[in-house]
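Sample pair:
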Amino acid sequence: MLKEALHQKVSYNRSIPLRINDKIVEDPLTIANTFNAYFATLGEKMAAKILPSPVSHQAYLKEPLINSMFLTPTNEIEIQNIIAELKKTSLLAYLIYLLILLNVLLSVYHFP
């Protein structure tokens, strides 16, 4: 069905009979809709079975660090690629580049 929807050549048309509500079904559309109905509601049904916790999620978190920032590690290749893209730069892109460069400096050098 997916190939048909994408207008690609279908090499074979074979349906696998399934038992749905005590009936044997071979129609691919009916089978697909049944699977969709099942999986579309599965998450909601599973979530309904989870008992509420007496502990708030905030109990697991440390005190917030308001004046903090996290930068992911990077490497020279990533920086070179960013510099190469600066031809199409804007102020925002330039600021992002500076943050990445700062991240590299902080990960390589240790300041007292």
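The chain has a mean pLDDT of 79.
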